[in-house]
Write a structure and sequence with these properties.
Number of domains: 1
Strand order of the largest sheet: 4-5-6-7-8-9-10
Strand content: 25-35%
Low-confidence stretches: none
Helix content: 10-25%
CATH architecture: 4-Layer Sandwich
Largest sheet: 7 strands, mixed
Radius of gyration: 19 Å
Order of helices and strands: EEHEHEEEEHEHEEEEEHEEEEEHEEH
Length: 276
């Protein structure tokens, strides 16, 4: 038996903590004013919770909660000839979606870009008979332990052309999945919000906290961009149906340079604050 935080939709073993550690952290929402609330899969099912399924490109499906649950991330299912990766799993699952995934062949792994995206990762792993990969740097945020959880340090190759890599930044273990065959062979990075595609669809953001607008330093952003530059990709997909659909490798570098220039003070004169 396990519980699910009603605010972030991450699973926790029972008995639960007094408050969800993820929600109490400065990178996430605050614990609700009226106190911590918990739910579970049977309750959500009885309330009419569901999942949607779309296929934006060959080999990639997007799974979302309907109505929105928790912070509302979109899970990504990447399928290769060897099997599939379920990335950034949702905080709810149902039998129909499980069977739809299993029909595509074995599931190589369930993995999240960072703790905000853990969802009900162990429940997904159990339903899909798959390992749950968690970066060792973020082990402290695991709310429900399981023998299915496998820790990795820096990277894990699931199949040639499909791999997971620790980048850092938003969390010490923030990771991306690199899918070389995506975007018609030009390469896709599933970024979570290690880098977050902006609403313009042409740039990305680098933040410690997105809901609370806490920035990362220029030095850290430079490091993130340099690590991503090691991969060949043309598309970046975020965790809220946000993406840079083409030219993403250049977009990451340009966005990094812009961020670094602003936090360094290059454009202070444009702010109207320093008038003396």
């Amino acid at each position: 038996m396990f519980a699910i935080c009603a605010t972030c939709a991450v699973e926790y073993a029972v008995p639960t903590p007094d408050v969800c550690p993820i929600c109490a952290d400065e990178r996430e929402w605050m614990v609700p004013d009226d106190g911590q609330e918990w739910t579970d899969l049977p309750t959500l099912r009885a309330e009419g919770q569901g999942l949607t399924w779309t296929e934006p490109e060959a080999g990639r499906a997007v799974i979302s909660t309907e109505p929105k649950l928790g912070i509302g991330q979109t899970a990504q299912l990447v399928t290769t000839p060897a099997g599939s990766l379920l990335w950034d799993p949702t905080g709810y699952l149902d039998e129909e979606t499980v069977e739809r995934i299993r029909a595509r062949g074995p599931v190589l792994a369930v993995a999240a870009s960072h703790p905000h995206m853990f969802g009900v990762q162990v429940a997904w792993g159990e339903a899909l008979d798959a390992p749950v990969l968690v970066c060792a740097a973020d082990e402290q945020w695991i709310g429900r332990r399981s023998d299915r959880i496998e820790l990795y340090e820096e990277s894990r190759e699931l199949w040639p052309g499909l791999s997971i890599h620790r980048i850092g930044g938003h969390f010490p273990g923030s990771a991306i999945a690199h899918w070389a065959g995506g975007a018609e062979g030009r390469g896709v990075v599933l970024a979570g919000d290690t880098v977050a595609p902006n609403p313009d669809g042409r740039t990305v953001a680098f933040l410690r906290s997105y809901p609370n607008s806490l920035p990362l330093s220029g030095r850290v952003v430079r490091g993130i961009a340099d690590r991503l530059a090691a991969f060949d990709f043309d598309r970046v997909v975020g965790n809220f149906a946000n993406s840079v659909d083409s030219g993403a490798r250049d977009a990451v570098e340009w966005s990094a340079q812009r961020h670094i220039a602003w936090v360094r003070g290059d454009y202070d004169a444009e702010t109207g604050v320093l008038r003396d």
